[in-house]
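[step 3/7] inverse_fold.run input=structure_tokens len=392
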């Protein structure tokens, strides 16, 4: 890893353009969860403490190159002010002049970058316009780093560029978990479908010692072994692919763990009547909605033998209790081992954070990535364009 950090930059008296992710949920004009804003505070405060002016650049929603007033970042500015405990100058036009008027040491927030059609096209002209507003570029938006946009990729080639503290923490955690991890490494991959996680499974088979497959996707693997999974969510057209992954794992020495027992129900509903059966004994009129207690025991002992855990996706239909039981129990075990200093645990992507939050285990994990797509692409072994642009 050869990207620079804030440690390599002289910020004193500089205008620092910071790409942040403040794409937060908003209801009736009020931010309902400011987690993402909280996470950019260290970088912004450090820039100010070291004598810089912070100019925040971000997107909000998908306006697709059009000015959509409901997607104005103006409505997020008060929440940014509250988190930073600083005045934030919202700049919705006439960028150059307005930034020229800022007192050194101020914080500014530019209007939604995606109002400009150039942003998502990685347009050089738009990047040059943004670059002309500052002296240094800092990318603190890991969650947007898998996309080559003007504010994440092209601009990094126009100014001295570095990773912000949040990006740095994220990259370090990911490197610890999959780049040069302490072995053995166990990956837990759950969720609905094999088809959305094929590349991820292919990469993990190569890089980990144990691969735990759970959730709906495990049903496809069971079906690939000739097991009747009844009415379970399963992709029967993906069974050949599942078999190939099992073969590949054998040849590279990765142990795949599929459920040995499962919790089945006839309704996809919270509190649905359910029973625990062997994985090969799902009744024809029932569906598998969670892994069973014996499977959880096996996972717990696998976790105990491992030094590093990487987790994406729930082991069952976690939104409808009691089918969150296996996910919660495995997460609690990972949390316990992490707290005891025996395991490095990294989780992220899509529903994973929500699933791990249910049990309260997330807090004890070594690192929880709030990035969805970027985390998954990284787990797939892909180069993140926004990160690559910081290298050099
Ligand atoms: P993903 O977005 O691929 O990580 O999938 C998460 C979704 O998979 C959640 O909505 C879960 O409810 C769902 N899921 C997990 N296990 C099952 C299962 N056995 N049957 C149906 N849906 C499941």
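[step 3/7] decode complete -> sequence:
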């Amino acid at each position: 890893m050869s990207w620079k950090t804030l440690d390599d930059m002289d910020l004193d008296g500089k205008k620092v353009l910071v790409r942040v992710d403040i794409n937060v949920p908003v209801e009736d004009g009020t931010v309902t969860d400011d987690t993402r804003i909280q996470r950019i505070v260290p970088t912004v405060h450090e820039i100010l403490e070291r004598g810089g002016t912070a100019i925040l650049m971000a997107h909000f929603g998908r306006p697709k190159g059009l000015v959509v007033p409901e997607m104005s970042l103006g409505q997020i500015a008060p929440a940014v002010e509250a988190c930073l405990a600083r005045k934030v100058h919202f700049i919705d036009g006439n960028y150059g002049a307005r930034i020229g008027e800022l007192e050194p040491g101020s914080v500014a927030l530019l209007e939604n970058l995606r109002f400009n059609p150039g942003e998502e096209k990685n347009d050089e002209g738009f990047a040059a316009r943004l670059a002309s507003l500052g002296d240094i570029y800092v990318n603190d938006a890991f969650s947007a780093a898998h996309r080559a946009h003007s504010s994440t990729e092209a601009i990094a080639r126009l100014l001295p560029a570095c990773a912000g503290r949040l990006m740095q923490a994220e990259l370090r955690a990911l490197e610890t978990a999959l780049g040069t991890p302490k072995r053995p490494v166990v990956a837990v991959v759950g969720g609905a479908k094999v088809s959305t996680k094929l590349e991820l499974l292919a990469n993990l088979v190569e890089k980990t010692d144990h691969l735990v497959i759970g959730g709906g996707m495990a049903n496809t693997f069971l079906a690939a072994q000739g097991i009747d999974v009844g009415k379970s969510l399963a992709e029967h057209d993906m069974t050949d692919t599942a078999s190939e992954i099992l073969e590949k794992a054998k040849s590279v020495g990765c142990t795949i763990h599929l459920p040995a027992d499962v919790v089945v129900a006839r309704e996809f509903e919270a509190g649905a009547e359910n029973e625990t059966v062997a994985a090969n004994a799902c009744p024809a009129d029932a569906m598998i909605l969670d892994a069973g207690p014996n499977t959880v025991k096996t996972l717990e002992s696998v976790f105990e033998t491992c030094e590093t855990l990487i987790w994406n996706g729930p082991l069952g239909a976690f939104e409808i209790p009691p089918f969150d039981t296996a996910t919660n129990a495995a997460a609690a075990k990972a949390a316990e081992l992490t707290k005891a200093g025996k395991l490095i645990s990294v989780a992220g992507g899509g529903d994973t954070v929500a699933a791990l939050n249910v049990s309260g285990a997330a807090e004890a994990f070594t690192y929880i990535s709030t990035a969805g797509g970027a985390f998954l692409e990284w787990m797939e072994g892909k180069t993140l364009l926004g990160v690559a642009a910081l290298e050099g």
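[step 4/7] annotate
The CA atoms of residues 127 and 150 lie 5 Å apart.
Residues 191-193, 196, 215-216, 233, 288-289, 313-314, 316-319, 350-351 surround adenosine monophosphate (CB under 6 Å).
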